[in-house]
Amino acid sequence: MTAQPEHVLVVGAGLGGLRTVEQLRAAGYQGRISLAGAEVHPPYDRPPLSKQLLTGDWTAERVVLRTEDGLDELGVRTHLGLRAVALRPGEVELSDGASLYADAIVVATGLVARTLPGQPAQVHTLRTLDDALALRTDLEKAASALVVGAGFIGAEVASAARGRGVDVTVLEAAAAPAERALGAEVAAVAARLFAEAGVDLRTGVSITGFTDPGEAGVAVELAGGEQVRGDLGVVGIGGRPDLDWLADTGVDTTAGLPCTATGRVEGLDGVWAVGDVASWTDREGRRHRHEHWTSAGDQAAVVARDILGAELPPPAVPYFWSDQFGLKIQLIGRPELADSVVPLHGSGFDGGPVRGTVAGYLAGDRLVAVAGFGAARFIARYRPLVAEGADRAALEHTRAALS
Fold it and tell me: Do the Cβ atoms of 398 and 378 come closer than 8 Å?
């Protein structure tokens, strides 16, 4: 085992940062740990922001992962409400002018919500707890909502709005919702959920800009001149890694922080990265950035042990879920590696019910991902096959056994 650091500094107090702290302690680390975060809130869970919190089923307190007292129990010194503004060897400068010094630094600053050019201040984005609370307040007063972006966040906002009886229009530049994440064939199945919930989903559209909505609300103009408006507007077009504060390090952060297979940032000694900002190298030497809840925790376990020189955990399978219109969409693996999609269960691809539909993603003859709509029992059975990169014969054997 290598010599352990005296002080570990984690920059970013979201899920990835918190899990890194917890994993360090779980691995037996007795040294100093500091946790710095741009928000004043203690670490909280982000998936419920567009789900249970937005629908009103949960209070804000319920999304907290660890209170200040809970962090004290871990022996962590917190610096909340302070954004990192610069990184130098062994040093992070915060927005109050103070600097923190550490032997090991973990970057876990997450994403910043993307916006559209000329986006008015009253148009919502959804990334933080404060964003979610503000949007929930406005949803309670709205009769109609205009959502730009039909990815998972846009879909979940539309679902929450429909649950409140709000009329919803969703504008999407791609041919189908969440096409980048699910692929064209599976995304076409997901599109049916919008229609069945009474959402006006418009795909393949281009927005030329925001226009005057009149007395209140939000309005946009589409290519061709049509105007679309709502009592409130939400832009859900993804996020960009929050890495501007690393501009002077000389590291190219365009696609996230380039990392080894254990999260060490290439070009920065003594620095690791986890979560949405981290572009890790996989077993085939490719880099990939996972914007998934489970990936942040999986990476934290690896980084904590790499920092301490301890035995690494086994490789994990990426996993993601989204709750939309009363149905859970689950995705395991890496569908972007696939060159073909095969239906495994259900009849959603043939116009039958979406619920129970499962699809497999293949790269050649190797299974690289599985997606399911309201089909949790199937997803659990396919996870080992995705982990081992099962061939078509093994996939067909499992499919037949489950049918």
Answer: no
pLDDT band at residue 1 under the 50/70/90 scheme: very low
Structure-token pair, residue 197:
């919930």
What's the average model confidence in pLDDT over 305-314?
95
- In whole angstroms, give the CA distance from residue 46 to residue 403: 35
* Of 286 and 236, more confident: 236
- Is-contact 131 225, C-beta < 8 A? no
Identify the structural domains of the chain with CATH numbers, from first to last.
Answer: 7-112+239-308 (3.50.50.60), 115-235 (3.50.50.60), 326-402 (3.30.390.30)
Structure tokens at 240: 């960009």
Tokens of 295: 């990936």
Tokens of 287: 């880099």
pTM score, whole prediction: 0.94
- Collapsed DSSP state (helix, strand, coil) of residue 216: coil
CB 266 within 8 A of CB 260: yes
Q: What is the DSSP string of 268-292?
A: STTEEE-GGGEEEE-TTS-EEE---
Q: For residues 20 and 65, what is the distance between their CA atoms, to the nearest angstrom?
A: 13
Tokens for 201, please give them: 């989903």
pLDDT per position as a tens digit, 259-281? 999 999 999 999 999 999 999 99
Kindly report the average pLDDT of the chain as a whole number: 95
Tokens matching residue 148 = 């730009």
Q: In whole angstroms, what is the distance from residue 51 CA to residue 319 CA?
A: 18
Distance CA(241)–CA(244), nearest Å, equals 8
Strand bridging mode 32-37 / 111-113: unpaired
State yes or no: pLDDT of 2 exceeds 70: no
Please check whether residue 343 is in contact with residue 376, taking contact to mean a CB–CB distance below 8 angstroms. Answer: no
Distance CA 193, CA 400 (A): 27
Going from the C-alpha of 250 to that of each of 92, 145, 231, 258, 288, the distances in angstroms are 15, 43, 45, 12, 20
Token pair for residue 171?
């504008």
